[in-house]
Design goal:
121 residues, 2 domains, flat
C-alpha cells in the first residue's frame, strides 16, 4: 500500500484535530470527577447517550450481528429488549443512583458507591 498525498494530508489533519481536542479537554479537566463524570455537569440525556454508547457499542457491532447470523433473524428481537431495558434503566434506576452516589461519599464509580454505601473495605 502506498501513501498518496491526499491520504497523507487527510491522516495528518485528523491527527492534528484529535490532538487539539485532547489538549483542549485536558486543560478543562481539573480533577478526577471532571474526567470520569464531566464534573457532574452533564444533562441526563447526554449522560445517557454516553453511557449507552460505551455500554452497547461492542455488543451492537459484534454480538448482535453474530447472534443473528448464528440463530437467525428472530434474534433481532434482542434489540427491542435492549431499547426497553435502557429506557427503563434511565427512568427508574439512574435518578436514584445519581442521588445516592452524591449522598454516600460523592462516589465516582459503582465500586466506590457500593463500598461507601455498605461500608465495605
Amino acid at each position: 500500500m502506498t501513501l498518496t498525498t491526499p491520504t497523507l494530508v487527510t491522516f495528518l489533519v485528523y491527527l492534528v484535530g484529535m490532538l487539539a481536542i485532547g489538549i483542549y479537554a485536558w486543560r478543562k479537566t481539573a480533577n478526577l470527577s471532571d474526567y470520569i463524570l464531566g464534573g457532574r455537569r452533564l444533562t441526563g440525556s447526554v449522560a445517557a447517550l454516553s453511557a449507552g454508547a460505551s455500554d452497547m457499542s461492542g455488543w451492537l457491532l459484534l454480538g448482535l450481528p453474530g447472534a443473528i447470523y448464528a440463530r437467525g433473524l428472530s434474534e433481532a428481537m434482542i434489540g427491542f429488549g435492549l431499547v426497553i431495558g435502557a429506557y427503563l434503566n434511565w427512568k427508574i434506576v439512574a435518578p436514584r443512583l445519581r442521588y445516592f452516589t452524591e449522598v454516600f461519599g460523592d462516589s465516582l464509580t459503582l465500586s466506590d458507591y457500593f463500598e461507601n454505601r455498605f461500608e465495605d473495605k
